Give the backbone structure.
Amino acid sequence: MSAGHHRFVSTDRRVREDRRFVVGKGRYVADIDLPNTKHVALLTCPYPAARIKCIDKNAALAMPGVRYVLDGAELAAATLPLMTGLDTPNVPRRPLALDIARYSGEWVAAVVADTRAQAEDAAEAIDVTYEPLPFVLDAEQALASGPLVHEAHGSNVLLDKTLVWGKVDKDFAASPRKLSLRVKWGRSSTVPIETFGVVASWDPWREILDVYASIQMPRYADQISAALKIPSKSVRVHYDVDVGGSYGVKRGIKHTVLCGFLARRLDFPIRLIEDRLENMRGGDAHGPERLFDVEVAFDDAGIVRSMKMRALENLGAYAGRSPFQLGKPIGSIVGPYKIKSVEYRAIAVVTNKTTQDAVRGFGQGPTNFALERVMDEVANVLGLDPLEVRRRNLIRHEEFPYLIPSGTTYDSGDYHTVIDKVLANMNYEALKQERDRLRTEGKLAGIGIAACLEPSGGNATFEALLNPAITTSTFMDSCRINVDGMGAITATMHTTSSGQGHETLVGTVIGEVLELDPDSIRVTRTDSLNSLPSGTPVGSRMAIMLGGAAFHAALKLKAKLTAIGAHDLGIAPERVVYDQGSVFDCNAPQNKRTWADLVQIAHRNIHRMPKGFEPGLAVSHVYEVPTGGTLPTPDGRVQMYPCFSFEFHLILLSIDPDLGTPQIVRYRLGHDCGTQINPKIVRGMTMGGIAHGIGAALHEEFAYNDEGQLIAQTFMDYLLPSSHEVPAVDIIDHETPSPHTVLGQKGSGESGYLGAPAALANAVNDALRPLGVSINTLPLKVSKLGDLIAAARAKGK
Amino acid sequence: MRIKLTVNGAAHELDIEPRTTLLDALRDHLNLKGAHAGCEHGVCGACTVLVDGVAVRSCLMFAPQAEDAAITTIEGVTPGPGELSPIQDAFCETHGMQCGYCTPAMILTAHALLAANPEPTREQIVEAISGNICRCTGYAQIVEAIALAAERMRGVNRPSEEVRK
Amino acid sequence: MKAAPFEYFRVADVDEACAMLAADESARVIAGGQTLVPMMVMRLARPTRLIDINRIVALSYIRADGDAISIGATTRQYLVEHDALIAAKLPLLARAIPFIGHAATRARGTIGGSLANADPAAELPLIAVILDASLSYRVGSASADIPAREFFVGPMTTALPAGACLTDVRFPVWPGKVGVGFHEVNARRSDFAFVSAAAQIELTDDGKAKRIAIGVGAATDCPIRLESAEKQLAGTELDASKVKDAVHAALADIEPLADLHATAAYRRRVAATLAARAIADARAHAQGKIHAH
């Protein structure tokens, strides 16, 4: 990664947040001890669906340390249902089940006690009478008939929308070849090592609800205030809480509404830190479980002209924003390919499983997986090389900006060059020979390719596309910079952070603009009452959005410093040169004003300030997402995210045919996210994304048994990859700057994850091909592979 | 019950329920917040501390069991305010973390490894940290941090006597 | 995820432990706690009294004992892992120990604890069964021994009488030209196995199996010996196709477990594969062709 003309951007700098983490001084929500805090434990429903006939709290209330037992009826009477994305008023979502519980693990009652252990003791003592009800787990069954999860809604379907872009029927009719494929993305999630936690404290005299939470979520404070029916100015969310990993899911809105209610009701601070069982069963943090039926029309050269994609999403029992995860992929529905027309049908159904929330990529990972599996099959039926088929279909560098059928224009890219760079490093023919050698040694071996996009920047107009009642076209982020009277610089950001290095980002960008050492700039995180607008770190957007806000705020500061200097030097601003915090006359460099001079003038010598200038050196900038500001057309076209990062995965994988155990032999990644502001951060995100993708592809699944019980609810059964399961990966960087962003940067918060499962699935299928079988359901677990191989071999005999 | 714990060289007397895990005792009673609860059932390793120099899961020990042992937490391996140990510094150099939640445990595991094996191979590092789940990094920069720390602690970077003169 | 309340007692000797166990049938012994504590915090186990035997010095040892090695019940797994006597005399145990959990759990986990918990997928019960270990326990003031093959009676269930405290396990040492093999399969390398298999072989000077012990773990409720295969293969040169047929036949009648991670068919099939591999490794090891580690 070359720094090019930059001073600090793209250079190999440390990440400032790391210093506190390595000494154990991160400040996570569980570290916050407010005096007199009481603890919450939850009683959960043991059935996938049940009517709650009676809740007897008496025994629990009599137990040591117990302060309160709250049930769904009391909470529902005092609060409004949680916000949902779609207009589905008959599918209300509440923190505690009201009358009917709709999945095993759903919260039925909350106990408040002096210690967490006492709260757990009392939760066991609550006597609930349930009437078990019929339930449905499978999305197709829920769609076809199935018992209704929400009787009042009249159907299990929350969304069924078909969008057609271009002449799909004509393109299909004109194409000599067609192919259809059914693939399924298994139910997994991001599963951070820190569970969700919240501490809420109500001050009735100031009328402020203080909230400390491990949160990563847009409009969090708004949603708390709406549900609790208190003004938003009475909710103070503290953003200076370190979040122990999120990758999308840390959205404990129901947890917060519950604790906020209890804090107000009981008048002491309330703390709910999910334990791992609560987190896995009832934290409402599962990810997509999506069935795809994809059909493509193509020619003998493998050029794909048109695609029909039907995506059926198993939402679980309730919906917040999760159905929108079917919407975001519309912004890059053709991936990096020149597919001319698309029909997309998005269906979301409710079932009696745990509720979903946003997961890294917001639905893009499953869609990329489906598209890349299909591209491999196109190559397969034509007997062409899968890499060659991709090269023929990829958008070429000179074709950018490139408008895709669904209305989004891709900013920039150089996909062929990225692939060439990867192959310069690992000869493709040699790799094929290595695969074939493994095969002659008795292994199953396959090469897996995936060429995927990472939409970044968070122009979330899919909301308006899927729900016409939404007219949001604004997606902002902000930065404020203040130079104090001593000349020190403090910048603020206005959201929480969960490991993405945002403080480093802000410091680096401001330092770059002001030509000052980033480490000399303090970066703080405010609270929601002291904040400018922020869309929060979702949609791989902070490098673009917070980086953009910081850049523009710094430019404003620089302009002000220059103007003050020019005025004091008595020359035209055009003659002034800004140089590392000082300004001088370009015609007479000895005539200068130092940083200290400028601070002195701004803070204490208003008589030396230009007329009409505000005293002090405080600036702020609210930055709107590039390419934002438009709503969908009536035929369903809209510009979504502004920037599109590219990743090209190339894997050699072997499988022990007797055991079914896959082993990644080689892993190489070409990655282009434009300008990398901090290369250490980008690499870490990308490697972490690959590890997460390995989990989703091979290991992780929230599996249910036929009785509707989640059976992968501990870390002994839900298998997060350890250091043994993540191979060394060679990452080859390429840099195609985005024309839309201040430094040419694109997003990388989802990189690796958006292509790894597709590449692994393609590698496994390439390995299985000699046996004449294929597998298209994730995760590709060892036993499943072993049984499939054994059956194929038995048939072959 | 009343117990005595020796943590980072200091003796403490605590009044706890027997069911209090060592992890909860450290966090809730001694205000040592560097050990983190991840799964509380012994899989993720975020609660790792050193007991008599050996890395163990503090969520799988009840606090009374730790009486008479020398317990070391991340706070105990930090040399002083503003100062980092070579391992901590190496984690900063390679950015061997993101959210920081698994980091103190990872660093203590690295301390235990390097105390027993000053020159670990990549495979030995991978094996040593395989009981500590990190969800952010994919481990590459963690492995590099430990290798770098080992190299530095062996004095590979130290100027030779000749150079110092 | 906090344990239900209990009383904690740290005992100084086995007499005290047995007296306390006799006094309260809901009392339980805690050794390393690496299995028991997760069950307690999930409230799947709720002892009223926890009897901590970790400090009983007399239960932590590794020593030669005639033609066997005796290991005290509370001996930490990592001590066994790094012990020279074990490496020299019990190569199969030495080979299997690193597969138990992670270094951090072996640092606390004990030999007796793993045996007494009797998880079907645990490595130590399988090794004990293959080596025909003998387990000693105390009930009250009486001592008794029980062969490993009679000790494991079901998943997490042993023949240990109520109120008993496991004290010692005695592994016979095989003399001669001995080789060992151990294999297991899981999704992540350090997890409980879906299937494990091990073999120990003594070869004659002309390369025939003088003595052979083969076992499979994690496939069924308890670790099993493949006795029919042992009989068939004893005295042979362990030809690969004979081995394959013998282990297949020996596994034909087992009732494999099925769960989230692996089907019964998978376990039966892979048990045969791993057993054959373990035998091949053991043979090569005995011939000096491969090292145990």
In short: Chain A touches chain C through 31 residues (CB under 8 Å). Chain A has 20 helices and 28 strands. The first helix of chain A runs from residue 18 to 22.
